[in-house]
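Final report, closing paragraph on structural work. Over the funding period we assembled a curated collection of sequence-structure pairs, and we close with a single example.
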Amino acid sequence: MSSARRRTLPRRASAGVALALVALAALAPTGLADDVGASGTLVTPVHLTVKTRVILYYLQLHSGPTQEAFAVQLTPPRFATAGGLPEGESIDGPTDVALQGPGTIGDTVNQPSAIAPCSDRPQAFHGYATGVTSVDILLPPNSNTVLAVRYDTGRRAPWVDSSFRLRFTLEPYLVGTYPSTSPFAGVATPSAAASYTTTGPVVSGPTGAHILLSTSPRQAAANPYAPVAVAAGRAITISGRLLPGKPGRRIVLKWDRGGGALHTLTSVQTGAGGQFAATAWRPGGPGTYELWASYPAQPGGLLADSTSCPLRFTVG
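Its predicted structure, as stored:
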């Protein structure tokens, strides 16, 4: 397989990753370039489990009677945002890009994902993905080849609502700058774009407990990590939901002040549909407080987990 020349822009945050093998599934086309064809490939296995460490995605590429050069954008999915807060992303940037067949890979450019840290406890994060990665491809005339892309999964267990769908977008330009001696120099680019999104892999088997935590007063959706100002002595009501929505499960609520030690506030049990609520919380003296929820190890098939980002409050 041809290996890529990588040009990486600065990155603000990325997850620790590991190695192994997995899947993908069929790709659904949303358009076609005029001069370059592409189609989906089905590869097994297509089920992602807690033991999955590597995901392989494939895109079939076809050229016409002339050679073509173009960029392929790789857009990773967001990771389990059903709770309304961006709780990290599921996969880091690609660890390898290769062609299985004729063709040449040019420059690879990673756009960093601009994510502000939501807490001083990075060990709680599920991991962050880079933004869009673009890779230049050169196809000889009348060729059929496969673009293979390898991603490492996050170091935490996937959630039941996690998405691992990757979008391929063929773009009629090049992201690299090439000298006149390069095979990419002066090659025509397609006149239209095309987009394909994988349908998998699908999360299966035991998953991490995804806790959707909310309070009143509520954090603004536009700036979820900014502390909410509350008056001294004001009660903060706490509620939430466990995914999958299993009743009779224990949720532990904890708080810290200024990134200090975590203190247990209370434990609650989930009701029908995984819903839970807690007695009102009144933070102490002035300062910034973080509210966490965790799912400790217990019978029932869910793996211990915690909220990826806390809810934050400033007491005046």
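Residues 67 and 140 are 4 Å apart (CA to CA). The chain has two domains: 2-203, 210-315. We thank the funder for supporting this effort.
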